[in-house]
Amino acid sequence: MKRKARKNNKFKEIIRKRKHVISIGISATFLGIFFFFITLNNVHTDTYDIARFSTAGETIRSPITIENEQETERKTRETVQSVPDRFNISTEITQERVNYIEEVFDAIATLESEELGEKENEDDKETNGDRLVPLSNQEKVNRLKQILSEPITESLENETLIQLIISPQDDREAGRKLFVENLETVLNNGVRTENIQSAISEINQSIKYATLNEELKQPLTELSKFAVVENSFFDVEQTQEARKEAASNVDPVVIRAGEVIVQEGQTITNEIYEELNLVGLLDGQRNFFPAIGLALLIFLICSMIGYELYLLMKENKLEKGKLISIIGISILIISVLKLVSLFLTSENQIFYIVPIATGAFLLKLLINERVAIIFTALFSIISGIIFNGEIAGSLNIEAVIYFFFSQLAALTFLTNVKDRTSILKSGFGVMVVNIITILLFVFLTFEKYDLIDLLIQTSFGIISAFLSVVLTIGLLPFFETVLGVLTDIKLLQLSNPNQPLLKKLLTETPGTYHHSVMVANISETACEAVGANGLLARVGAYYHDIGKTVRPQYFIENQMSNRNPHDFIDPKESAKIIISHPYDGAKQLKKYKLPKEIIDIAEQHHGTSLLKFFYYKEKEKEKEREEVGQIDESIFRYPGPKPQTKEAAIICICDSVEAAVRSLNEPTEDKIEEIVAAIINDRMTDGQLDESPLTLKELKIINRTICGTLKGIFHSRIQYPLKEAK
User: Fold this and answer.
1) Is residue 483 over pLDDT 90?
2) Residue 198 in contact with residue 153, Cβ under 8 Å?
């Protein structure tokens, strides 16, 4: 029978887990669909049916960041074309032309020196009676040409040379110096074919306005036509290198996401039309890809949600109310984000006002901190999409950082929860973090803010924290009452001795009350040792025997000095009265609308255990009556159910242990260890722990913890001497 029962239990467990997995899949899918459609318009852009040269009916911004390759090419082409050609100036030619001019003047000077020498010889010859005839100008020119280089003699006219020869030496030297200086300047600047005449004119202008003999200016002018030649030649390699460098320095023409392409009322020019076409505003084909990207992001988010819900299921912490709470909180937070985003403009940062910390508060209080941290990150990511100004492919990083730190502050400061004032205290921490984060953004930018703008933005952070606290305190009773989610705050409220049922337990059954308090202390310590909810165990232990208030006199701890009424009734009737107390208690708890977890502990704390005292008493009676027959054991067994949670199973053990140890006259350490081990072993062999998630390792820890707690409670005391009577 036991094997069959175990198989049935395993089959039921498999069916239950499958149902949970299906519920998780449906929930994650539902949230994914909700997230997708509420953020779709943030990545999807409208397309426009606009003709060239028409008037824009509204201001249109670019939904994406993209390079305008055509404009970049045009800009590069113009830049390359603006690069001047590179020329290589030949210093050899420059020096050659200067040397030619120097040669002309040096040759004339040499000729004059020779003529002077001949004149001196002539004077000597006159003394002797001989006389030489002076050279004519033509003869001088002929003689000059004999010593000049061929390029000079071929280019210069005789008249030019004659004029130079007949010029006074001092004037000629001044002209020489002026001419060479101007020639070097012109040639060093480079003379190309197209500017030879302008170079010659430049030298001639200098000669014209120089303080020289007018008769010398003419030959110098003619000399410039010979001296100035092309010495600057086009350099292909340098020119190409310069153009390449200029092209590489051209920045790409990029249309940024959010950049205004056309203002309302502006004419759609060809250039604007091409930009609209480039960013996909004239063709809806591009909208398909952002939707795919969004779907992939939502898939990742929902996968994380699904996995976290699966972990909760494995830990037996995923009740229906908690699952609905997670879905409800997610929908609430994302809906508020979307609503506020409708009022977002480029001039304001209204997202600072969103009470995002509400989600973190509620998830930590209703579920646990791990779930709250995961959803904190997910909400922050989604907020970056929602507040992107409906610009596809962009995220509002400021919103992501602000919401992440705001929620993280809520989780950090919400500790040691004793009542709802703990939420209010945490709200001050959130407010400080909100203000710091806002100031962080202000000081990181180069923009100058007026004091009034700074006060407005920080006030948004204060309002956000205030609204988060108000919404959390306002919504928490809804989740606790309507959805039946049990929170630590609710448990602490239920543990208050002024609760009606606890006052009833104390006044009507003081012995049971004391027993419940002892069981609560032992159970809480044992639960915390194995990672179970110690607070739930404590509160559940307070209420687990509330059913004894129906017939308090039938329970030994409440009988005081009265005689035991069970001595006067049939064992079967006694068993019926005792067995009914878990279910009487459950009825009272339901009547007072206590959480399901507390009711389950009250129903399950005896499981299907056997009421041995009355069972054996009934056997003794049958022996006395000498009746032969099989006693129906089920009459003396609690109908169950068996403990389903760690907390209920631990209370089941501690309930029996506390009663057994209290019955000892001298509870020594050895006796305590013996009784605890015996009771745990009895519960295991009787199958009372089969449906609980406790492991053998955890049972050993529970055994050790209970023994330690009981030894501390029932430690030996000093025997004080009595005062002697006089």
Assistant:
1) no
2) no
